[in-house]
Amino acid sequence: MILIGENLNVMSRLVGEAFKKREPQPVRAMVEAEVRAGVDLIELNIGPARKGGREFMEWLVNLVQDVTDLPLSLDTTNMEAMEAGLAVCRNKALINSISARPERITKLMPLAKKYGASFIGLTLGLEGIPRDVNERGLFAAEIIAAAAAIGIPEENIWLDPLILPVNTQQMQLQGCLEFIMMLKDLSPYCKSTCGISNVSNGVPKTLRGILNRTYLIMVKRYGMYSAIVDAFDKELYDIAKGKMPGLEALVHRAMDGEEPDVAALSKEEADYVKTTRVLLNRTLYSDSWLDL
């Protein structure tokens, strides 16, 4: 699985402050740490960047490229900043993201075409968050058709089913799994991706890791090509790279309806089984699900 490091993000306290002051050293240090962690791409998330966004994105891309040759994923709602970043990317860039909303398609797809960039197609439309796998498929089809109309190959599209937090949208997570399974029929050439940390947004910090890792196992089983992740979760990295087959097999058994005796499992194994049940909506989410 291809991993995109999410840590160079304006929402991070340390990085956000460095962005604001344009201090290169904390940015360099974060990039170097992500590279050591083994990510395959680095995401640069500068948010709306309303003031000086164009100049800032150009500065940031050049700074990061002075540290690493890894390809970059660019994330901003500022269209001028997006183009400035694409213009100075040395490798093929990834645009995060283009939804099925017309204003995003008309503004961003021409940039993907102009610069030969790939883009994340977010299954989100004018109607808002997709309600089920069928709406995800509909939005994905609209994105694919719009890209084809201007000559963007499907190989450049990375479709994102829009993972939502388990503590507020527990029933939605099954729809994301179903979308991944459906994708090979919808388009055998498009890739798939997701923001894996979205599943644990808003839950206690101590519980985020187990949710992220378990859901990564689940989406990986159905062929997820890539994921945007916390670069510094070593266990998650090992799962993504196939280094924990026993743990994956245990989660797969739980997904298939097997009910392992948690009392006979290690604490770690029991936590993964319990978390699988929550993510499949078989157990109602609460902050204390691991204690049940």
List the helices and strands and how they pair.
Blueprint: E1 2-5, H1 13-21, H2 24-37, E2 41-47, H3 53-67, E3 72-76, H4 79-88, E4 94-99, H5 102-115, E5 118-122, H6 133-149, E6 157-160, H7 172-186, E7 191-192, H8 205-221, E8 226-229, H9 234-240, H10 245-255, H11 267-279
Parallel strand pairs: 1-2, 1-8, 2-3, 3-4, 4-5, 5-6, 6-7
- CATH topology title: TIM Barrel
- Biggest sheet descriptor: 8 strands, parallel
CATH H level, superfamily name: Dihydropteroate synthase-like
CATH architecture: Alpha-Beta Barrel
Radius of gyration: 19 Å
Q: Helical stretch count?
A: 11
Q: Which residues sit in consecutive blocks of at least 5 with pLDDT less than 50?
A: none
| Silhouette | globular
Q: How many domains comprise the coordinates?
A: 1
SS-based structural class? alpha/beta
Protein model, in words:
- With 292 residues, the chain is an alpha/beta fold.
- The protein has one domain (2-241): Alpha-Beta Barrel (TIM Barrel), CATH 3.20.20.20.
- The chain contains 11 helices and 8 strands.
- It has helices spanning 13-21, 24-37, 53-67, 79-88, 102-115, 133-149, 172-186, 205-221, 234-240, 245-255, 267-279; strands spanning 2-5, 41-47, 72-76, 94-99, 118-122, 157-160, 191-192, 226-229.
- It has an 8-stranded parallel sheet with strand order 7-6-5-4-3-2-1-8.
- The chain is globular, with a radius of gyration of 19 Å.
- The protein starts with a strand and ends in a 13-residue tail after the last helix.
